[in-house]
Amino acid sequence: MIDVIVVARQMEARDIATLFLARPDGSPLPAFGAGSHIDVHLPNGLVRQYSLCNPPGERQSYQIGVLRDPASRGGSQAVHDLLKPGERLRIGEPRNLFPLEERAGRSLLFAGGIGITPILCMAERLAQLGADFALHYCARSAERAAFVGRLRGSMFADRVHLHFDDGESGQRLDAARLLAGPDDDTHLYVCGPNGFMSHVLDTAQSLGWAEGRLHREYFAAPVQAESASDAFEIQLASSGQVFRVPTDKSVVQVLDEAGVCIPVSCEQGICGTCLTRVLDGVPEHRDLFMTDDERARNDQFTPCCSRARSARLLLDL
Questions:
Q1: Per the confidence metrics, is the pTM higher than 0.70?
Q2: How far apart are CA 123 and CA 135, in angstroms?
Q3: CATH architecture observed for domain 2-91
Q4: Residue-wise pLDDT tens digits, 163-195
């Protein structure tokens, strides 16, 4: 854990604030790569992940951009309402679940709304490397687009393409045209609202893009149709204790009520913080963190959202 202080805060766009976090003594923060995020421990007790949006070589402070979300579960509201300059808090070291393939022949960066935060960091890194890339940024309007001044004033401004929902039809995003004719050395990076990401990724897949060249980062789990959830049991390998997980509760909730704490963060199966080994039984995976191959092994699962196909799971707890 790292103790930091909010040294500055500014509004980047409507409902989007950028916070600058630094150590109280001014010493350098840990190095990080483009696409990294940090866990932020908020004053209200919640832990949330935010992408780092400063250039990777800059270590005197970390920058995070946060959208005030009306549907917030308390994270973004706390950032906007409680984190003012001078506020002290704790953060985790940078982690990267959305790494940049720096050796790609060409990179296409697609950002929607607040999804610009990791994409901006990637663009600055690619520009530093002298790599071939293009950035397409979509937002509802210019006033809701973050970091526009920074993009337009950058050394790669000629590679930035802005697409606004309320703009002229000719500047709207045409994913099919931009993604047509993929070659084997081009990689696609997508971050933004779930609908935006699905549109871009579905288009890419329909045009023949290989899965290995598609990279994405979710900020929230996609809304899925309700599926039947049977009750099941979990057993702790260390103590032999058995707990029943009813249809309306998660494994994490049941264990928390029993005084067994598992580290959690996103609570949506996105970040992997709660990943737990499964010693016996078959989990029903509902996460976005693991790969298909990892899920197929059935030797770990995310207890914040995943359930069980078998009557009982034996957990390495």
A1: yes
A2: 7
A3: Beta Barrel (2.40)
A4: 998 877 777 899 999 999 888 899 999 999 888
